[in-house]
Amino acid sequence: MKKILLIVGIFAFTCSIAQQQSKLNPSASSVSCINLGQSMNVFGSAFSGRTQLYADPDLNIVTLTRRSLWTSASPHGLFADISIDGGNTFTTEAGPMYTAPSDTERARYPQGVIFKNPQYPTIVDSAFIAYYAPLTSYSTTGTSSYAPWPAEVNGITRIGTPMNARQTITYYSPAFSGCIPDNEIITPQGIIWNIDKGIDAGTKDYNDSIIISKGIWNPVKRDFDYTRNIFPFSVPPFNSEYIKTIARTGIAFSKNGQTGYFAVLANEGSGFEPDAIYYPIVFKTTDGGNTWSLPIRIHLDSTGMLITGHSGNYSTAWELDLEVDVHDNLHMLMACSADSVVSPTQETINVVPGSWGIFDVFTPDGGIKWKATLLATPETFRGTFGGINEDSRPQICANKNRDKLFFCWFDTDIIAYGSDSSGNVHPDMHWRGLDALTNTWSPGEVNATAGTCAAGECTFGLVANYGFESGSNFTIPVSYQKILTDNMSPTQHVYLGNNTVSTSGWSSSVNVVGLATDGSSSSVTEINNSFSVFPNYPNPFSGTTSFDISHTKPLSVSVEVSDMFGEIVLPMITNNLPAGKQTIAIDAKKLSPGIYFYRVKTEEFSITKKMVVM
């Protein structure tokens, strides 16, 4: 088991009545708590928010995909709670959607999205829940040791009656051994995507691969056909005690379904940041996921300017949510903190109050530049529930047009509930909104559940990807899971009814900092103006190609060329260059046709570009 170090502090917190009121939800008196179904224990919704709660604003549907009770007709199966009136009322215990063929094929950590039937896209009863869940084990002989999660189930369930549930169990080969996918999405075109971390069948460690699954509707069999693709992504172990891993992944697509991004929170061990620092690495597609860009590595150091007033080694870990706005720009919601100095070889995050915050890390121009906005400095970070740790669970909700984004997280009010070693154990749901068309923000952070029936009890909170817009009012679909006895006993799912906020009068501005990157010369130029690498020419090419670099002082520059698998295919070229603009040639006569990458490195910078040999 990987050891994680969390740095906390004992502190005194004072807050004026005016400051407390600024966080309250003006619609608190109208929020209601609607009991949904129950699950056998908390684990189905544990370990950060995945896509369990989903809403479709076109059809006015809200669904919660969840595990069943032990006492149900399918004790290891999946059920749903369904609303067809925008979350005002629910049909609970709909299902089973998945029925375990045997006790060894138990569904865990489910996710579900809403798919409109292409034949009847406006008819509610013809829509489906498309779900996914890993299975703990399976019964075929000789293959049960492949991975902790050796199989998956995906299927569909009709919203109307009869439900016509279908399920397909897929057994992994060792190369495709997975973990627990971090999120599942569906594009407006009806394409399903989910992203997972590869797991080594023997060691159970991360196996240097990201697994991206794509589901396409098959009208003949009336179900989805899934393809499961491996994306190589290597990280080193910190040392012999701390195993290799990546902290979190996420994937999101634009409204047109062509522009998309996936992101990884990790440390690649390349020297981009010290070993204990985790940072986002982003990949972009503009052709619907057929090809992906080179990685864009983003330094988080400048986020400290918005918290403490100075930069430093700032890190992130464990939680991430993605959304693509109306301009096809990516937003990543995450916690960023000053790195702990306790150990340079451990993944750490420092949550001493005043040293961390919830950030929107985003691009304003399709991935060339990257910036960050501080949304809040929460009072607590992690809550402990009988051995389960839950953090602030940041999640993004958007309107259908993606021009309104609601950044949500969960935090405990220590004035109301006190401060103890258990931390974030009485969370409320908080949000702040962005108008992406006018680039203006809601007046401030809002505590949506303070003073409501859900005050202090929004544990294991879930926020839907999309919400319901009516004029200047917007409803954010939110559910949470109440522990009734302990974390191994049945739990109650609860939906926040009428969690409606106003989007009128948003005119606030926020402080924004630029973030340095590796792999994007424009971003580096914006931050430093001292070193730039330009694309090679010609490209594609055969034989030789050249590229220009520009720098303000004499430098020792090295260039190495690698293939799609990261293998070095040409010897490293080292040049001592004077200041100014210089041209470097690459002789690729010995290379077979294909895609290659050249990395230009100095003592301060490392920038990678793509070239195509014909």
Tell me about this structure.
A hairpin with a 5-residue loop joins strand 20 (321-324) and strand 21. The model is unreliable at 1-22, 138-147, 341-346 and 520-529 (pLDDT under 50). The chain is mainly beta and 614 residues long. The radius of gyration is 24 Å and the shape is globular. Strands 19, 20, 21, 23, 24 and 38 form a 6-stranded antiparallel sheet that branches. Strands 15-16-17-18-39 form a 5-stranded antiparallel sheet. The two termini are 47 Å apart. The protein is built from 4 helices and 46 strands.
Salient structural properties:
614 residues, mainly beta, six-stranded antiparallel sheet, 3% helix, 44% strand
List the topology elements.
Blueprint: E1 5-7, H1 17-22, E2 32-39, E3 53-56, E4 61-67, E5 78-83, E6 91-98, E7 111-115, E8 128-135, E9 151-158, E10 166-171, E11 183-186, E12 192-199, E13 206-218, E14 223-232, E15 248-253, E16 260-266, E17 279-285, E18 296-298, H2 304-307, E19 314-315, E20 321-324, E21 330-338, E22 348-350, E23 356-362, E24 370-376, E25 383-385, E26 388-390, E27 395-398, E28 404-412, H3 414-417, E29 427-435, E30 440-441, E31 446-447, E32 462-463, E33 468-470, E34 473-475, E35 478-483, E36 491-497, E37 500-502, E38 512-515, E39 517-518, H4 521-527, E40 531-533, E41 544-551, E42 555-562, E43 568-577, E44 580-587, E45 594-601, E46 606-613
Parallel strand pairs: 1-22
Antiparallel strand pairs: 2-36, 3-4, 4-5, 5-6, 7-8, 8-9, 9-10, 11-12, 12-13, 13-14, 15-16, 16-17, 17-18, 18-39, 19-21, 20-21, 21-23, 23-24, 24-38, 25-26, 27-28, 28-29, 29-30, 29-31, 32-35, 33-34, 34-37, 35-36, 40-41, 41-44, 42-43, 42-45, 45-46
